[in-house]
Amino acid sequence: MGTAVSVFILDVTNSSKFRNGQELSEYLSEWQDVLANNNTIKIAVKHRMGDEIICVVEGYSNALVIANYMVYNWKYEDNMPYFGISFGVIEDNINTIDIDKWNNMLVKNARLANNLIKEDKTRTKLIEMNPLNKFENIERQLINSILNLQSAAILKQTTKQREILGLYSLLRSQKEVALTLNKSTSTVWEHFTVGKTDLILDASESLYDLLNSKEIQLNPENKIQEKQKKFELELRRNIEQFRLGQGYK
Hints:
- The protein is α+β, with helices and mostly antiparallel strands.
- Helix content is about 55%, strand content about 15%.
- The chain has a domain at about 5-135 and about 225-245: Alpha-Beta Plaits (2-Layer Sandwich).
- Helix 2 (about 60-70) runs parallel beside helix 9 (about 225-245).
- The protein is globular and about 55 Å long.
């Protein structure tokens, strides 16, 4: 039996208009290092072509987990990342994949999904899912409808609401967010509530559960949900260290 994986291709909105191309390139390289620095699951990730990151990661849900946390904690509000995602089963060993040469259908599907966002002039969506395995159309539509609503909620947030979303996604405590920002808990609660942070994160959890359930059908003996939670916890810790260490909270 092969390995259940997911793939994303990240591009950056209006990257050609970014005020400092070298700054953006360095930022993406730093994200590459954050993602590669994990001990929970297998992952291959590479920043290439200036404004693109390609990631292959073990598990149906984990590309979406990474994409969401990158969206929540992205530094440049005017140049948001957008992701085409696919998932399926591969025979390759993730640890030996050369991303520059890997020509799997998952990459093509992720590219197609990414291009759907790129070609949309309104650019109102941050993530598009295009699974490789046999997914019912209604399931595909459901996933992408939830992603559409989630993107709309995030893009309508104020700068402060987005800041609260990002920090809360990592710290999971309004009190800890308030201490980090040196604000009152009531101020954090107001931005948390009006910015629909709880709904955004709940939607993400529902999608992870759905994708995990699809993977469990392939391998009922594997502790997939437990593994995904461990990876998510490690990812949160790594991003917290990266984000707060950069001093742009």
